[in-house]
Predict the structure.
Amino acid sequence: MGALEELKAEGKIRHYAVAVGSDIGWFEEGLYTLTERKISAEVIYSILEQNPADVMIEAAEKGGVGVYSRVPHASGMLDGKYTKDTVLDESPFDPSDHRAYRRMHWLKNSIQKLKQIDFMISGKPATVGQIAIKFALVPPIVASCLTTMTFVEEIDEYAATCVIDDIPQDELDLLAPLYADNFGVGNPDPQKSSTSGPGWIAHNGNPIDRELMVPGK
């Protein structure tokens, strides 16, 4: 960070931040930069993936440090391409797509989770993609939401999110216990950790071994 501070002092950049997420790790580093260095963080945060971003968002609120949410559509699971009735037998992503590193059980579990949040997305005047963005912007400390867009139509759709209604509080209240129970699909996946010997921690915080991801497995 010293080099970045020098660039700021020289006027070559105005700001810098860190990017952290659930499966990619860097939770400890993200929390450190928010609480100790007062540097903004870009965090993976969505209806389906709230942890550990929720912890960092809470820390950001206490410290008055803004954060950005990214991947609000959970690698495509919340952009409308997939529904509660989708059947996945193999990864939908080309090996050259970084999303191919999503594990198959994560993809299948996400479909099961869509069934649990049907009350939030079915029969609404907004699209699933718009509702996903609205959720990512619920915490007041979140300054903006960074989406993945590959078509002009998606730009129009996502930009129109600003004119749709907020997610009702009663639906957010129904979502909270569902997420806490991992939507009933079993224990949450391990997360990367810089302070764990094996490099991963289980949902209970204990170190755990985990094989490296192979696309499609």
